Amino acid sequence: MTKILTDEQANYWSELSHTFVWKKKWDTLISGDFIKADVKWFNGGELNITENCLDRHLEDRRQKKALIFEPNNPDEPSSFLTYGELHLSVCRFANLLKNRGVGKGDIVSFYMGMTPELMIGILACARIGAIHTVVFGGFSPLSLRGRLEDSNAKMVVTHDGAYRGDKTTPLKDMVDEAVEGLDFVKTVLVVKRTHQKITMKEGRDYYYDALIKGAELHCPATPVKSEDPLFILYTSGSTGKPKGLVHTTAGYMVHVGKSFKDVFQYKENDIFFCTADIGWVTGHSYLTYGPLLNGATTVMFEGVPTYPNADRLWQIIEKHKITHLYTAPTAIRALEKFGHEIPEKYKMPTLKVLGSVGEPINEEAWHWYDKYVGKGRCPIVDTWWQTETGGIMISPIAGITKLKPSHATLPLPGIDPILMDEKGTIITEMVASGNLCIRAPWPSLARTIYGDHERFIQTYFSTYPGYYFTGDGAKRDADGYFRITGRVDDVINVSGHRIGTAEVEDAINEHPDIVESAVVGLPHPVKGQGLYAFVIPTNTKRDPAELEKEIKDIVQKIIGPIAKPDLIQVTEGLPKTRSGKIMRRILRKIVENDLENIGDISTLLNPEIVEKLIAEKKSFS
Ligand code: 6R9
C-alpha cells in the first residue's frame, strides 16, 4: 500500500483519537486513498458520539450548563439545560424514536426552527445509531421533498410553526405539502412552538409532547462502527440537484472536537455563541458537536441579529456573559449598516474571541468587527472550511497566530492544503494563487454523496486526481498565509449560503413563459454575493415587472427565499459560443461592470447581444 500520511500525521491523528471514549478501540488508522475516494479512518473501532458529548461529562459537569437557549422574542425568558438534563432529554427522545420504530441506520429528517428540541433530536438519533439529516427551515416544501425523496427518511421532525425575527413560518403546513404521497415517511413528529392551527393526519402525525411522556428516561448508547454514518447534510453543487454529503462517526468526532478546542482556545467555563442555524454545517460542528465534545456551554439563538433591533447580539452577549462569538461576514455587514454607535453602547467585557465563517470577510467588515465588537482586544479567527470538510481546515489559532485581516492564515495540525495551477501542477512557490486542494486525507472529510459515489468522485477527486478539490480559489503570501478568494465553480455564496446557479436556472426555466436563463453572481454590499438572472421570455410582450415578480415567486417556491434573484434582466438572447454554450464569463464581467476584461467576443455566435446586455444592465437603485 502506498503511504498516504507522513509518520507525523499518522501519529497525530492516532494519539488524538485516544483522547475520546471508545466502546472498542480501532485497529486500522486509515485505509483507501484519494484516487478511489474511499478513505476510511479508525476501522475496527466502535463508539457512540453521544457518550463523548454527554455521558463522559456527567461525573464532573452534571450541573454545568450545556445549552443556553435564547428565544426569538427578547421578552420571553431564556432557558438552559445542564449536562445532566441534556443527557436525560436526549435519552428520552431516543426512546421516543425507538418507540416509533426508528433504529440503527434509519434516516430522520429535521425541518425545524432553532429550539433545543432540534439539538436534542439530532443527538437522540446519534444515541441509537440513526442518521440525522437537517433541512434548513428556510427551504421550500419542494426542496424538503426532494431531500426526503433522496434520503428516504422514515420520520420528519418539525415545529407547528417557527419564529424567526418578525416572521412566523408555518413549518407543519409546509411539511404536509412536502410529504404528500411519500409513503416511506411513517411519522411526522410535531414539536409545539407557535401553537398555531395545524392539521394532524391520523396514524402519521404525532405531537412530541404526547409521545415524550411515554418514553423512558434511560437509554443506553448504541455502539456504532467508526465508519457508520452520523449525518447527511445537503449542499448545492455547480450542477444538478443538491448533494447529500455523508459524514461518518469517528473521524468527524475526532477532528471537530479537537479543532473547536484549538481554534477557539476553549477553556472550561467559556460560553460559546455560534449564530449559525443547525440547518447548516456550522450549526452541526460548532454549535452542537464541537462544544459538547469539549464539555462547553453552547448558546442557541432562535432569532436573527437584527430583531427586534440591531442591538440584539450585543445584548445577548452581555446577558449570557458570552466569551466567544462565531458568526458570518454577512451578519457583520448587515449590523455595520446600523452604525458603530450601536455596539459601542455595549462593553461586552466577557468577550475573548471572535470568529468568522461562511465566506471571505472583507477588510472593512474585519476592522469593524475588531474595533467595535472586539474593542481591539479579541482575536478574530477567520475559519475556512466546508460542509464537505466537516470541520475547520485553515484558521488562525486564537491569540496565537499573528492575524492579517481577511486571511484565514494557516492550516490546522494534520491539514495539508496546496495550490494547483490550471494544468494540475502543484504550485511550489510560496507566493502564489491557484485552486485550493487538500493533499493528505484527514478524518472528518465527508465519505460520499448519499446514493451517488460516482458523483462524489467526479465532483471532488477528478479535477486533480489524487487530491481533494475544494472548489475554492486562494492566494498564499510570503508568510504562507492563505487568503480564500471565493468559489471557482458555478456556486454562488449568498450570505454565506451556497447556491448552485444550475439549480436556480432550472427553477426559473419552470416558468411557462421562459425559454432560457443564466444566473451569475454579482457583488452585493451585505450578502457578499447576490444573484443576477438573465432571462429569455417566449413572449416579449409580457410586462417585465410582472414577469420578474413571477420569476422570484417560482424560485421561492421551488428552492426557497434564499435563492431569489436580486436582479433580473429580461433579454432576447444570451452570448453563446458557436457550439451553443452560454458564455457565463462574459455575463459575469457585465454584472461586475468589468467591461475592460470582457475579452474577445468576435468568436461568439451572436456578438451583437453583448452590447445590448450592457446597455440594459440592471443595478441596485
Ligand atoms: C463552513 C461553511 C463552504 C464555502 C467554501 C468557501 C466559503 C467558508 C470561508 C469561506 C472564505 C472563509 N467559505 N468559510 N470563504 N473564508 N473563512 O461555510 O460551509 O456552507 O459548505 O460553505 O464557503 O467558498 O467553499 P459551506
Automatic annotation (TrEMBL):
Pfam families in the cross-refs: ACAS_N, AMP-binding, AMP-binding_C
Xref: PANTHER family: ACETYL-COENZYME A SYNTHETASE, ACETYL-COENZYME A SYNTHETASE 1
CDD domains in UniProt: ACS
Family: Belongs to the ATP-dependent AMP-binding enzyme family.
Keyword ATP-binding in annotation: yes
Protein name as catalogued: Acetate--CoA ligase
The protein's Enzyme Commission number: 6.2.1.1
Domain of life: Bacteria
Database matches in NCBIfam families: Ac_CoA_lig_AcsA, PRK00174.1
